[in-house]
Structure prediction request, 370 residues.
Amino acid sequence: MGLEEKLPNGILLASLEGVVNWARKNSMWPATFGLACCAIEMMTSGGSRYDLARFGMERFSATPRQADLMIVAGRVTQKMAPVLRQIYDQMAEPRWVLAMGVCASSGGMFNNYAVVQGVDHIVPVDMYLPGCPPRPEMLLDAILKLHAKVQDEPINARRAQLREESGAKTEMIPSSVKYAKK
Amino acid sequence: MGIFDPVKGFGVTFGMMFKKVATEEYPEIGAPAAPRYHGRHQLNRHPDGLEKCVGCELCAWACPADAIFVEGGDNTEEARYSPGERYGADYQINYLRCIGCGLCVEACPTRSLTMINFYELADDNRQDLIWTKEDLLAPLLPGMEQPPHPMRLGENEQDYYVNGPELARDRGVPEHETVETDTEEAVR
Prediction:
């Protein structure tokens, strides 16, 4: 992307990667893309009972340029698809997409000509969240798993190549297991 | 309009400090759910470890989202996976289609398919969200045996189906452990 592409690979860059990713995952602002019933659960997650703000997602952004994570909540119709793509293109990098619910992930029970069979036909999806609709805990779980993925993201092309060669993959551990009280 | 009105608002804020917090500390407290919450599916076993699924595909037919794929196979005397003639040779549930309605559980004639409370399913690719038989089968309890094997409990089929749970206790299956979902049993 910029300066980090020219830096030599080593301890310094590995630590920098950790710090950068830590900052990114702990202040990830979501862009709402509520399209159907999943949006109700997404709004609930932002409310006081589930409190998404605990994970640094204080502000649900209605402006794509200030958002990092697009939560596609609900079924995407063929007519909505270009709008969704435009919102995605307007978001600044680095950006992530979370397909919330079965409709956004694969079309769900709407296997017909009006609904896009998975939002990954339009934008690259980083996390698929099944459920109809997923309960707020499931959304929190998906976000925490996405955080784990963001923490492992390589910072430049060289480190991306090294990671590719090592075959490392972020493990998807259920959040209630990973963050269980000792 | 009194002169203290602007300060009164702060009083409400201050009072909130002594109230109980509404937030549910989700990842730390585990994954809470109602006892009969529709989480992921489980394919149950008979008390000797044989599968309850007979590969009838009624669940697949009942599914409104077409999320279940079943392919039946024939049991033989050498390789027996379930009591009776047929067993589910291939069983897949696509969690990216499943809407958790439970119609498959209602359709199941042998109570092989039930749902458990686990719901933390999110993953980063579509392939891993198609769960196969290995992922869905209930774990083997102590005293159970990995199929294929012959029917172990009792002399005849009457014994197997009617007295199976009692006979299983002699084999070391714990008394309060059931072959079905534990929470389902608790509600009953």
Observations:
- Chain A touches chain B at residues 48-51, 54, 102, 105-109, 111, 118, 120, 126-132, 134-138, 140-142, 144-145, 149, 170, 172, 174-176, 178-181 (CB under 8 Å).
- Chain A has one domain: 26-168.
